[in-house]
Amino acid sequence: MSEVWKKLVLDNTAATDAYKIESVQSLWSGFGEIFRVQLQPESLGTLIVKQVLPPEHAHHPRGWNTDRSLMRKLQSYDVESYWYQSWSQQCNDKCRVPAYIASIKEGTKSWILLEDLDAAGFNKRLSDLTVEQAKPCLSRLAEFHARFLHAEPQGLWPVGTYWHLDTRPDEFGVMQDGMIKDLAVDLDQLLSNCSYRTLVHGDAKVANFCFSNDATEVAAVDFQYVGGGCGMKDLAYFFGSCFDEHDCERFIPALLDYYFEQLTGATANHVDNDALEQEWRALFAPAWTDFYRFLLGWLPKDADINSKTHKKINSYTEKLAQQAIAHPLLSSS
Q1: pTM surpassing 0.85?
Q2: Looking at the structure, do residues 92 and 165 belong to the same domain, yes or no?
Q3: What's the DSSP call for residue 106?
Q4: Whether residue 258 sits in one domain with residue 144
Q5: Is 159 found in the same domain as 102?
Q6: Whole-angstrom Cα Rg for the chain
Q7: DSSP-derived secondary structure letter, 43
Q8: Full residue range of the structural domain in which residue 74 is found
Q9: Fewer CB atoms inside 10 Å of the end CB: C or N, the chain?
């Protein structure tokens, strides 16, 4: 397939040649690869190719190899391509994303050419974060949520995040009966029908942030599940990706304060910031619990011994689930 991406590169840059210099990572379930390309002459620098080549027999670490799963993944790559083509230009340096260069689709195969963020100064990757390292990510998310407040997600997922209930009926079907399952639809509607809808990244884990060398600036990648919704979905998923349950207890209250300070600064006087903050703060626990609902199906308790636990199913998650259940619009259901 090298002739496809190479032709795309040569047709859309001033390069006379290009060659792959390293693999950045494989795509989930063996669906392809992200790799770095050196342009010729070398003074033109490097760029990134995201190459989607669905395998004949997809492998999922939890066994979710269904037609529905396949179609969801394929749609996610179409959404990401459309995001870069039609939406990403609205992001500025305060919510940095890689610049879009070109893309092509051939059946279920596709290629996206993007700016190399490493070459742009975002060459550091982190996993567990300190409070100070988390703040640039929260500033970036606040700017993103403010920039797309009340935007209609045309061409994107109507409801963002990869765990959205409507796209996960298989996992929902194997959940054990209980309060979380009983409230799943109400949780989803509570979040999806909030007054202050925005675009959510949809997969805002720390692995999808690229940091500057001093970790004071970040850029975001991987927009397969960008779509409409409540900004608290991104925050809940982000915190769960970089803090354990004890750090969640210690750090999240102050970091939520910091996020809303940044959000207020980013929205300026264009909205009623007090009303926005009041609504979204009350939706933080439901957003966390919505992802918990997904985990309870994705990792059902009656699965094999290796699937019974997940680091995000912990005392902090259980605590927020109880808070969510007590939300006035859920407790009256």
Answers
A1: yes
A2: no
A3: E
A4: yes
A5: no
A6: 20
A7: G
A8: 1-120
A9: N
